[in-house]
Amino acid sequence: MRLGNMDARRDATERAGWTRFARSPASESTRRQFALFSMIGFVALFVDMGALWTALNLIGLDLYVGRVFSYLVAATFTWICNRTLTFVHAGPEGLLRQWSRFIFFNAIGGTVNLAVFVLVAVKLGSAATWPSEIAAILPYFAVACGSASGLAFNFLASKFLVFR
Q1: What is the 3-state secondary structure (H, E, C) of 114-141?
Q2: H or E stretch including 21?
């Protein structure tokens, strides 16, 4: 099979059964859920920043207590949105119990995010002598890797452990 032959590749993919998975209702549902989960998380960033501003400027909390406050506001916002928009099939479990599980697993996701950040920024950064251009962007690359890992963990935990 030549690389340029699209029909041959499509036939091989169909024989392997991948197109049935790629087009299955379950995979469509998961892709839709992941897209909604991601969009809600993006909006939550601004909810988090607004809640932090409120905590610091209107309520008068210090930075660290204000950050806990803003995290809980943003996490509650994402829980409500994901419960009503993303994972509408969620059972009639007690709201407080489900919210607690959501906060718990998202805290683990935050730890995954931080661990991957440290792994990339520190371990990869010290693994070689990088050109200055690469060394300058490595911390930002580490943030992206950590964020992607945390997002994946939080989505899977939400889908299979929180909103079941």
Answers
A1: HHHHHHHHHHHHHHCCCCHHHHHHHHHH
A2: helix 18-22
The residue ranges of the chain whose pLDDT is under 50 are 1, 13, 18-21
CA distance 144 to 148: 6
Quick one: CA torsion of 79, 150, 71, 30, rounded to 10 degrees? -20
Q: What per-residue confidence (pLDDT) applies to 164?
A: 85
Look up residue 128 and give its two tokens: 């070689």
Q: Helices 25-54 & 132-157, crossing angle to 10 degrees?
A: 110
Q: What is the pLDDT of residues 115-138, one digit of tens each?
A: 999 999 998 888 888 889 988 999
What type of residue is 63?
Answer: L
pTM of the model: 0.79
Contacts of 141 (CB under 8 A, 6+ apart): 120
Domain ranges for the chain: 90-164
DSSP-based helix, strand, coil % in the chain, nearest 5: 85, 0, 15
